[in-house]
Amino acid sequence: MTETGERVSVRRLLALAVPALGVLAAEPLYVLVDTAVVGHLGAVPLAGLALGGTLFTIVSRQLTFLSYGTTARAARLHGAGRRTDAVSEGVQATWLGLAVGVVLLLLVQPLAGPVARLLAGPGEIADAAASWLRIAVLGAPMVLVALAGHGWMRGVQDTVRPLRYVLAGNAVSLVLCPLLVYPAGLGLEGSALANLVGQAIMASLFVHALVAERAALKPELAKMRAQLGLGRDLVLRTFAFQACFLSATAVAARTGAETAAAHQVVWELWMFLSLVLDSLAIAAQSLVGAALGREAARQAKGIARQVTWYGLGFGIVLGMLFAALSGVLPAAFTSDPGVLAEMPYAWWFFVALQPIAGVVFALDGVFLGAGDAAYLRTATMLSAAIGYLPMIWLSLAFDWGLAGIWFGLSLFMLGRLFTLLLRVRSGRWAVTGAVPADSSAPSTA
């Protein structure tokens, strides 16, 4: 970063955020195409893909510390002028990803069938999900290697090459998926194999990038232990998210088909816009971590203020856009009058939350870049326990429907906003210096 003041140029911010957005959007777009291909096989394969894909996603999202945690550590070292050490964090995260991926592979193979039957009941859907999952989990080590690759490359402020790698892997998968499913006659298993090939390509490209850096490739247990210390907090934070979101889906489904369908439409839009806003957070991670690594606490705080205002402005624009589309966009997803009648109960919460989400996601990026994972963990779990989860289940008990569910989400986001603003105002997150190899994140004391 060439700036010497408290701010970074908009061009520099976008140079990091736009490729990151491409990476974030690539996977959901591939899943949509994969779903469309498998959907023509019939209801059972599609349901099997939905269940198997959900299980695989839940597991992989619990391990995103391999990207976010590695970014925090690598960015500080990069800011301190220690690029070789920053890349070394990527090497150790890659070894860690391989090890955890192999353990997952060994665990999921025998458990795929029982878990699928537990969730879907005995029958064709559970069998299809288990069959898909047994193949897909072979890619777990490669998925985690790619997560580690994203982490160290974001840390050294390179978000362009990861985008190329993701596009290359997904492009091959997109070509192979229909070929393996239909002409090759592999059906649902062909979808899993196509996904596996794409993951192998992405992982090999990230490994090649590591080798090209000429960094030492020997495993270092001390660095891996430090990464796991940071990872523990991020895993707990992710678990809180998933507990909330799964509870919301379950309550919506128990309330009624129209409620569940309306919730699903608005929720998918929420998740899509979360990806858009999260690209700003990824840029903030890299820039804040680098500033702290070179002892520039004042600049890190300036960047935090800057991205917070950008997040707020971006959220206001998105909120206004989707408010204007309220009479048109829902009908693009469904023509069912019952579903359309339910949707406004969630829609206006969704619109009103966009400015709040813009600030929250931006500050998430700031604190992740600072390695302040312990505070993020506690703030997220408290907001979930006090706001979201009670309101969701009260909504079921008192039949508050979508309004209750989305009011719960609003309390969750407001709780996160309040706790994050308190933290950024305190300045205690801006601990300077490169992260030592034998320590975890900065203290939250």
From TrEMBL:
The record's InterPro entries line, in alphabetical order, gives: DinF-like, MATE_fam, MdtK-like
Q: How does the UniProt record describe the way this protein sits in the membrane?
A: Multi-pass membrane protein
Q: Which UniProt keywords apply?
A: Cell membrane, Membrane, Transmembrane, Transmembrane helix, Transport
Pfam families assigned: MatE
Q: Which domain of life is it from?
A: Bacteria
Q: Which GO terms describe its molecular function?
A: antiporter activity; xenobiotic transmembrane transporter activity
> What is the protein's major site of localization?
membrane
Q: Where in the cell is it found?
A: Cell membrane
Of the GO CC terms on this record, one is: plasma membrane
- Any transmembrane segments, and where? 41-59, 93-112, 132-153, 165-186, 192-213, 234-257, 269-288, 309-333, 345-367, 374-394, 400-422
Please report which protein family the annotation says this sequence is part of: Belongs to the multi antimicrobial extrusion (MATE) (TC 2.A.66.1) family.
Protein's recorded name: Putative MATE family efflux protein
Species the sequence originates in = Halopolyspora algeriensis
